[in-house]
Amino acid sequence: MTMTRTPGAEVPTTAAELLARAKELAPLLRRRSAEIEEARRLPADVVDVLRDAGVFRMAFGPELGGPALTTMEQTELVETLAHGDASAAWCVVMGASGGIFSAFLDETVAKEIFPTPDTIMAGLLQPTGHAERVPGGFRLSGRWSFGSGITHCDWVTSGAFVYEDGKPYASPDGSNPHESKQFLVPRAQVEVIDNWHTMGMRGTGSCDYTMTDVFVPEEHTYSFGRVRGRPGPLAQPDAFTRSMCGVALGVARAALDHAREIALTRVDRMTGVAWKDHFRTQVTLAECEADLLATRGGVYGSQRRQWEVLAAGGTLDDLTPEERAASPIAWVHAFRTSRSIVSRLFDLLQTWSIHQSSPMDRWMRDTTTMCQHATAQDRILQSAGAYLLGAKPEFGICLGIVK
């Protein structure tokens, strides 16, 4: 089955229009889920339709032709797409991150790299590469993992430590004994290693990739400690991580909807009691709904408070410690609670879950896999807990701390 493009159709320009388009796409993505998983990447026509729908432009500001959706609107959009297919939604989050990163570039450079807000980004931010300083820029080499969307992106951003004459390069201001930066490279200069064979999230194409001695101009590098473009709520070091948990929330919602649909049509073969009249079914569904309700409330509540302060011209430092820690705590909880919801519903549906033809099989594997991502790990909780105690966060960027 091929998803049909509509040549010449207007791209949505508002949050409401983008969300409406995502709702139209979700059932189409659901029907393509098995194919997406088997391909281990998004098929080209799926990428084209997503791009045409404008979902990759959600974080770009008006200076680059984008709608600058709020964090809450981005998360809702991602949730909606994940109700159709988790891998597609994950690729949209990653692909749309260029809108966040553009704030850390000079505007003229951003317009060169992102000539259209539908430009797709991929890459790994962790500084695992080697960047040797040379006149006018750097020579970048290395191997990076988890390049979600690397098979269909336009630009790749990669973290690397900086060296000069083969020795670690210290920041001139003395703030960092070994400086690291982000490097933007056209996709054509990257070699993809086809090694994405996983239990879940198979359709994200999150392959390793390599570069060898690729020249990167100085102006195509950035650091999260310096905003060069338009300031605002999205021009923050933590902004690219905020909406990722929308994938988990969307899958949990899809699993709950599926379980209710099954419960309304099944009868217990041993007792003749309709599933909808069974105590266990009723309690499990209610408990899972309660968990999703509370988890979404935590995610969106923390996002709204953060956005309120930043949109008023404040900084993350203007949040109370509890308010600042709330966002990363909430997104970790969202990933893990969504996995728990899917697991309990998997058990509730029993043998209706175990066949590969059941979406529960994929949702179980997808939520288990996405919970292994860095944004769902204990280091996020450690960072939030350390911040609340006045200690050193291990992964400060989740709190918007880069020094």
TrEMBL record:
Signal peptide positions are: none
Keyword Oxidoreductase annotated: yes
Stored InterPro entries = Acyl-CoA_dehydrogenase (IPR050741), Acyl-CoA_DH_C (IPR013107), Acyl-CoA_Oxase/DH_mid-dom_sf (IPR046373), AcylCo_DH-like_C (IPR036250), AcylCoA_DH/ox_N (IPR013786), AcylCoA_DH/ox_N_sf (IPR037069), AcylCoA_DH/oxidase_NM_dom_sf (IPR009100)
Which domain of life does the UniProt lineage start with? Bacteria
- Tell me which UniProt keywords the record has, alphabetically: Oxidoreductase
Is rRNA-binding given among the entry's keywords? no
The Acyl-CoA dehydrogenase/oxidase N-terminal domain is annotated at 30-97
The segment(s) forming the Acyl-CoA dehydrogenase C-terminal domain are: 244-377
- Per the database entry, which stretches of residues form a coiled coil? none
Recorded family membership: Belongs to the HpaH/HsaA monooxygenase family.
The protein's name in its UniProt record? Acyl-CoA dehydrogenase family protein
Please name the source species.
Streptomyces flavotricini
